[in-house]
Each structure stands twice: as structure tokens, then as C-alpha cells.
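DM from R.C. (forwarded with permission)

"hey, sorry to bug you on a friday — could you get me a structure for this? deadline for the figure draft is monday and I only need the backbone to look sensible"
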Amino acid sequence: MDNQRTARRVSINMIGHIAVPGDVAIPCVIHDISKWGVRVRLDGAERVPDKFTLTFDATEKVIGCETVWKSSNEIGALTDLME
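My reply, with the result:
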């Protein structure tokens, strides 16, 4: 399979939280990030809606995300970092 990414991914392995309306923030590990997207690992990925807010705990940076794919413990999402 060819890698179709146009932006280079950077492995960061940072702790973060996903904000879900009407629920407590869900802890996660942000594995990698690029200008276009992010991959996060968490328990219970099915609880996360298609659009969510991701906070990087170390920097308190907040980005908007839109889910592209989901497994039981990971989410791949587009981000608003390109704006």
C-alpha cells in the first residue's frame, strides 16, 4: 500500500485529553501529528464523536479534530492546524 500522506508525520507521544460534550474529558496519548492530522490512542474510542476538541496537556494547546478512521483504541483525525 502506498503512503498517501502529503504532510510528514512527527511522532510525539504526548498525553492529552479529548473533550466530549456532556461527558468528562477522556485521557489519551497523542502518538503522531502532521499539518493535516493526528493519531491518538485511548480506551473506548467509540465514545468519541466525529468532531471533537483535543488538548495537549504539556502545552495546553487546543485543536479541533474530525474523525477519519476509528478502531477500538485509536482514532485518526483531520485537524484545524492547516488553517
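R.C.: lifesaver. Residues 10 and 63 are 16 Å apart (CA to CA).
me: no worries. The chain is about 0% helix and 55% strand.
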